[in-house]
Amino acid sequence: MVCMKSLVLPLSRTFVTNLVSVRQMSAVASADSVKSLFYKEYGEPVNVLHLTKQPVSQPENNQVSVRWLLAPVNPADINTIQGKYPSKPPLPATPGNEGVGEVVAIGSNVKNLSIGDRVIPNGVNLGTWRTLANYTPEELMKIPKEVGAVEASMLNVNPCTAYRMLKDFVALKPGDTVIQNGGNSSVGQIVIQLCKIWNYKSVSVVRDRPNIQELKDHLKSLGADEILTEEDIRKTQIFKSKKLPSPKLALNCICGQNALEVLRHLGHGGIMVTYGGMSREPLTVPTSALIFKDISLKGFWMTAWTKANMDSSKRQDMFKELGTLFKEKKLRAPPHKLVPFCQYEEAVLNALSSDGKTGVKYILDMTGS
């Protein structure tokens, strides 16, 4: 065996690069296998998802290996597996649109990422429900390590959805009112916090429940100005009494009667943005709201916005601002539960729950798999 110190001739750059690559790949090689969820056909997740093991593969020259740490389970993920979501990956597929991972190996041609960097998906259908995978740097976005792992894992969907809806539809000013249903949802809780940060008033509608006061206290602690149940919203006088200005923006993820009651409180020229339909009922609009109040109806889909703005400065600025707010603890993650990867059934079953009352986000924990 030749000792490295005994070499007198200068080492070639290629040799050094290859040596570094081999050392960097040792973290990948130390893993016994890659565990991943996959599905070959659309259907209910508990029926079509399978947990499999594959050999570890080294990254190519233009790739990095990412060890996924946490990956949220969103309703959109479930709908994708069911075949009900407009954005579908080719089958067979590994699910998962969100997650946070750590770079554990890099190919020789990769310049902008290093071992130990924290990354999130830079796009959709990347397949994060697995322990390890190889990607090109363009498929990933580096984030500051100071952002907590839980917050980083859910950065792509809920915070961005709340951010864009508050920024893109109405030119809100400090003191303006935003009203929303689904106030205890993950998006709803981020909306409340961003409104507080940006000095907007927020009114949130939630379903009644035995522990309603506990929920109200929690949402108030996030910065909500008013929390109303579905019964409260039908008879509230907070806008007619001028306690709060009439809302200029309404955010709707429920539809049905709930959305109709929210829409009634919009001020003249107000806009309702629909980004979900949890009630599975249509959105109905009184003719008078269109004619006499000049109400506008818009829709928002984060996936479409991301595809249209993949390389835009608006997208980069958004992630920078959200990352800073999480890093500075001005934004808090919604209530969540970490589920070991091997117990994924618990997460997908609870994500399918339609009662809308749990208010808990389920996150797959790859580190305990």
UniProtKB/TrEMBL annotation:
One of its GO terms (molecular function) is enoyl-[acyl-carrier-protein] reductase (NADPH) activity. GO terms for biological process: fatty acid biosynthetic process. Residues 44-360 form the Enoyl reductase (ER) domain. Its main location: mitochondrion. GO terms for cellular component: mitochondrion. It catalyses: a 2,3-saturated acyl-[ACP] + NADP(+) = a (2E)-enoyl-[ACP] + NADPH + H(+). It is an enzyme of class 1 (oxidoreductase). Its EC number is 1.3.1.104. The keyword NADP applies. It comes from the Eukaryota. InterPro entries: ADH-like_C, ADH-like_N, ER, GroES-like_sf, Mito_Enoyl-ACP_Reductase, NAD(P)-bd_dom_sf. Transmembrane segments: none annotated. Keywords: Fatty acid biosynthesis, Fatty acid metabolism, Lipid biosynthesis, Lipid metabolism, Mitochondrion, NADP, Oxidoreductase, Transit peptide. It is found in: Mitochondrion. Belongs to the zinc-containing alcohol dehydrogenase family. Quinone oxidoreductase subfamily. This is Enoyl-[acyl-carrier-protein] reductase, mitochondrial.
